[in-house]
Structures are given as structure tokens and as C-alpha cells.
Amino acid sequence: MQVTKYVFQPHGDERGQLVALEEYKEVPFKIKRVYYMYDMSPGIVRGRHAHKNLQQILICIHGSCKILLDNGNEKEVVLLEKPYEGLYVTNSMWHEMYDFSKDTVLMVLASDIYDENDYIRNYSEFLKFYGK
């Protein structure tokens, strides 16, 4: 399985750090939606779905978490813990976010607006949809 983890270029000095992200430059798609998660309870798992079309970049801008990626044939766990790293989650990738530190803020850049019809929320249906 090919997992793409981007390292974004931080720009900083004694005032602090800044990371700028632009569509089709650091992000390989047009950004149509941005959202973030915080205050996750201990032991909680987020995600547990795939998308038919949506692409995403996950950035843990504070704290840390693990992301399980599953393409139906292989699984890989990726640790996100640096605010200048982003994980590219393509469509056709089952993903689960878990093991959040107490202070985690996980930001997601998405290639489209929210569309419930784009979600595959059942793992068996995910495998069937992608012919696994």
C-alpha cells in the first residue's frame, strides 16, 4: 500500500512558525471544505468509513493521534504528531482515527463539500464497492 505523508515547509523565526498550504501546490486537490476535531474522549475512534470520491489531507495541528489506513488488501497505521505533516487519504481508503492525546486538534482539508451519499460506512460494503 502506498501511504503519502507530506512534510510541509514551516517558515519561522523568533516570532514563531507558519505553515501555508495552497491547493494544487502543497495539497494535491482543490480545497472545498476544512474542518477540525478536538476534545475527543479517551478510547474514542473516529472515521470508520471510506469515500467514493472525496480526497483528504489530515493534519494533527496539536497533540497526536494514529490513523489506520486500509485499502481492502493491506492495512497500515500512521502516527500524526507534527503540525507540519499531513497524511493524504485518497478515496477508496477505509480510515479510522484513534489513540488521540488529550490535547489533539486534528484538521482535515477535503476536496469537496459534505455529501452523505459519498460515504461508505459499512466495511463489508466498502470491500464489495471496491471489488476486494
The number of strands is 12
Instruction: Work out the helix count.
Output: 1
Percentage of residues in DSSP E strands: over 45%
List segments where confidence is low: pLDDT < 50 over at least 5 consecutive residues.
none
Give the terminus-to-terminus CA distance.
Answer: 14 Å
The helix/strand series, from N terminus to C terminus, equals: EEEEEEEEEEEEH
Mean pLDDT: 95
Strand order of the largest sheet: 1-9-6-11-4
Envelope shape = globular
Radius of gyration: 15 Å
Helical residue percent band: under 10%
The largest sheet is: 5 strands, antiparallel
Keywords:
single chain, mainly beta, five-stranded antiparallel beta sheet
Summary of the model, kept short:
The protein is mainly β and 132 residues long. The chain has 1 helix and 12 strands; from the N terminus they run ββββββββββββα.
Description of the structure:
- This protein has 132 residues and is mostly beta strands.
- Helix content is 5%, strand content 46%.
- The protein has 1 helix and 12 strands; from the N terminus they run E-E-E-E-E-E-E-E-E-E-E-E-H.
- Strands 1-9-6-11-4 form a 5-stranded antiparallel β-sheet, with no helix packed on it. A 5-stranded antiparallel β-sheet has the order 8-7-10-5-12. Strands 2-3 form a two-stranded antiparallel ribbon.
- A hairpin with a 2-residue loop joins strand 2 (10-13) and strand 3 (16-19).
- The longest helix is centred in the last third of the chain and has 7 residues, at 123-129.
- It is globular, with a radius of gyration of 15 Å.
- The protein starts with a strand and ends with a helix.
- The mean pLDDT is 95.
